[in-house]
């Protein structure tokens, strides 16, 4: 798609430069009369900014996605509250999602692109590290547990304690964190992994330095 635009303000110019740096456009310069004109060769990008609802809560939309062809896109949990999301659909179509930051994305959310295509949101369920403390001996050294707390805190891992298990959102590579924990040599500490679903009622607490 070719689009010729006049850039009359520095704000417009900065916006276009940002798009160029992201690789969303290529540029050709063409001086016309007194205005600085740019011919922008825009890659085919679908822009989705019309929210239609969630197929898990709206039977009509659930029927619609079975009839219509949808662009399915899988996003990370960290994308849920972003206002601007750049992604590629499962069929490798370049996609831009524009929404309010007040709306958290859910799996099953349905958007419509400016060209009339449907976009179905799937959220990738993250893997949690689970530290099982149920088998720890009663005479376990308190210093080892303090060091465990330092390891988790120093790497800013959001976590929550339930019964005798610590559920940890992985802020670093799981193999690195697992090695750091194993190096503490805490007897009978079990390290497991579980897939976290957004339907679970878990609120993680983050560690911050002051």
Write the layout of secondary structure elements.
Blueprint: E1 2-6, H1 10-22, E2 25-32, E3 35-42, E4 45-54, H2 59-67, E5 70-75, E6 84-88, E7 94-98, E8 109-113, E9 118-123, E10 127-132, H3 142-154, E11 159-162, E12 165-169, H4 174-182, E13 190-195
Parallel strand pairs: 4-7, 5-9
Antiparallel strand pairs: 1-3, 2-3, 4-8, 6-7, 8-9, 10-12, 10-13, 11-12
Please characterize this protein's 3D structure:
The chain is an alpha+beta fold and 210 residues long. It has 4 helices and 13 strands. The protein has a 6-stranded mixed beta sheet, covered by helices on one side. A hairpin with a 2-residue loop joins strand 2 and strand 3. The N terminus is likely disordered.
Radius of gyration: 24 Å
Helix- and strand-based class? alpha+beta
Q: Please report the number of helical segments.
A: 4
**Biggest sheet, spatial arrangement of strands:** 5-9-8-4-7-6
Please name the CATH topology of the largest domain.
Answer: HSP40/DNAj peptide-binding domain
The CATH class of the largest domain is Mainly Beta
Helix-strand pattern = EHEEEHEEEEEEHEEHE
Low-confidence stretches: 1-12, 24-42
Average pLDDT value? 78
Number of strands: 13
CATH superfamily of the largest domain: Urease metallochaperone UreE, N-terminal domain
Distance from first to last alpha carbon: 51 Å
Largest sheet: 6 strands, mixed
List keywords for this structure.
about 210 residues, alpha+beta, HSP40/DNAj peptide-binding domain, Alpha-Beta Plaits, 3 domains, six-stranded mixed β-sheet, four-stranded antiparallel β-sheet, 13 strands, elongated
